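Student: I would love a firmer grasp of how sequence relates to backbone shape in proteins. I am handing you a single protein, as its sequence and its fold in token form. I am told such tokens are a discrete way to write the fold. I hope you can help me see how the letters and the tokens relate. Take your time, and here it is.
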Amino acid sequence: MQPLLQVIDAECRYGEKLILESVSFDLQAGEIACLLGPSGCGKTTLLHAIAGFQPLARGSIALGGEPLSDNRRVMPPEQRKIGVVFQDYALFPHLTVEQNIGFGLRDLPRVERTARVGELLALVQLAQHAQQYPHQLSGGQQQRVALARALAPKPRLLLMDEPFSNLDTELRRSLATEVRHILREEGIAALIVTHDRSEAFAAGDKLGILANAHLQQWDTPQNLYRTPANAAVARIVSEGNLLRGKWISEGWVETALGRVAVSPAARLESGHIGKAVEVFARSEDLVPGEHANAVTVQVLSKSFLGNSALYAFRLPNGRKIEATLSTDYRFEPGNEVPLRLESPLVFSD
């Protein structure tokens, strides 16, 4: 089956400055994907290239098999049948909610336009606010108006640039789930830029991790979390501590937290004994308690989080690490406790 969106070997530059290099991925019809990565990694640049606001230095972009951009031509944004929701919503302040949503439908007969606006008002649960103006709405309500306006012409693809960044944390997560439901109802594929992994996990069927000008990995949220391609991906999709280590034998790595048994998926390749590795230890990989492979660490601090607590530990080599542990553990600053690693992520150095 031909993908809806194909990005092939895309490169973007601002003058001589390289922003993105060799970016390739596919998006299927009806699929929702998120681009996740740190500020300045090129997420918005890639979105702008797909929308037609940013030319490619090389590579190509196609929608439904139709070329949109390459290094010779750029189809104008208004001809791409792509909807865009901007970070600041870009609502028209002098138009009502109803008028904002119907703005892109002015060429339709009035009866059809009214029916479509009514459908979308119901879908985004704003029918009772139809005659209000943007300044009379909450941030979450404004975001839903912007979404409805972008969906009104039934675009083939919707692009959303940091759509929830102006909202508080709890509302961001709930709205990400709500937007996923709305897009499913409309059957429209979407690509969402975010720097918040909770949003990305809540909204995306696929996640693309951007860092160091490259698309590091394109996969399902579950696969990205369980089997990140490298340490850069691991640090973006989860909280954890990156430690230095060394292969000491088949299936075993030596770290500042002692000897660690490595999962079969990351076993030593022949001839690599003595080689340096990067060990990414998430909270669930850190286990307190007496064990042959445990080392003694000192508790530096403890922050109560409700059903868990954030601990800072000093390792024998002086390195500080953090872990969120169950409140069943009642360590206090100054305590010395045994701590070990179990099945962490291991990457070649």
Observations:
- The longest helix spans residues 169-186.
- The CA atoms of residues 20 and 213 lie 4 Å apart.
- The first strand starts at residue 5 and ends at 14.
- Helices lie at 43-51, 97-101, 110-123, 139-151, 169-186, 197-203, 221-226, 231-237.
